Amino acid sequence: MTEWDKKAEGALVYCKQSQEALDDGSYGDLRQATNLAINAYGSVMLEGHQCCTLMDPPYCVEMTYRSHDFCTPLLFLLFVLLFAFVAFKSCLNWLRQVRKKETEEAPMPKQTNQGAPQSAVDLERKLMAIWSASCLAGKGDASKELPHASEWGKAAASLFASLASQFDFQADSVCCQFEHLVSLWRSHACVVTDRAIQDEIDEKGALAFNKAIHHVAKVAEETVLKDALEDLHRDLTEGFHQWRKRLASYEEAEVPTQRERRHRGLLAAAKDDSAMQLVEISVYLLVWGEAGNVRFMPELLYFIMDLAIAAEGRG
């Protein structure tokens, strides 16, 4: 027996019951007969896929849903959301452009640059504060500072402030490079002291280790800043002096000799070798600090440094 035969038998049962109700003829029986007839067709034959209760065409209503019944509303909803997003994005961009235009048209406030020193004197004071806070100067404790630390600090701070005024170096860069100088100076002071102690031990033997430290500390402390500056100068400017020596081998370059350099430009005011070394170190650090990508081209950096050292007067 096929599926439809089974459905037909089930429907016939409902139909017979409906016929019996019609034969009775009462209102209640007519209502029951109608329900039975509807169930015979809709519930049994069509298994609830259609509801055929309408009095006029199409008589039956589809009770199942197909995919396209959902696609159309869904596509419409997506279109509405997309339109709303585009409209919101456009409004947001328009507001940004309006604000940007207002910002560009607004008068720029005058920069007072309150945080930066306004003169060589102010800059020198700031540099001296950096020096005083370093361990070379005892971090503000006069009893712990190295011998002649105050004189060296004043000389370095005054020189940096003077170079900043003469060549218009940026105050922030000057302070940064001064801290750089203090850090390098401190490191070389340690190296110089360690080397002096080791030389003393090599000379008198390991048994005199404690005595060597005590003796060297007394002797080296007096000149440790001067010796450290000499060491630092040799390390920093070795390439510069080799470049000048090689350039001097070309007569067309007309490079001044070392003796001639001592009587012109920044070196003319140097009283001794230590002062000259401090000038060359300071110029090197300040030029390097503002050189940008030029710092990766040593020859060009040395050329600018040589011009600065030989400069007469401002700029």
Brief rundown of the structure:
With 315 residues, the protein is mostly helical.
Describe this structure in words.
The protein folds into 3 domains: 3-62, no CATH class; 65-94; 120-310, no CATH class. A two-stranded antiparallel sheet has the order 1-2. Helix content is 70%, strand content 1%. The chain is mostly helical and 315 residues long. The protein is built from 11 helices and 2 strands, in the order ααββααααααααα. The radius of gyration is 49 Å and the shape is elongated.
- Tell me the helix content: 55-70%
- In round numbers, the mean pLDDT is 80
Shape: elongated
In what order do the strands lie side by side in the largest sheet? 1-2
Characterize the biggest β-sheet: 2 strands, antiparallel
SSE arrangement, N to C: HHEEHHHHHHHHH
Beta-strand segment tally:
2
Broad structural category: mainly alpha
Radius of gyration: 49 Å
**End-to-end distance:** 113 Å
**Uncertain ranges:** 110-117
Quickly count the domains: 3
| Helix run count | 11
**Proportion of β residues?**
under 5%
Helices and strands, with pairings:
Blueprint: H1 3-24, H2 27-45, E1 50-51, E2 61-62, H3 67-105, H4 120-132, H5 149-167, H6 171-204, H7 209-221, H8 224-248, H9 258-261, H10 273-290, H11 298-310
Antiparallel strand pairs: 1-2
Helix pairs in contact: 1-2, 4-5, 4-6, 5-10, 6-7, 6-8, 6-10, 8-10, 10-11
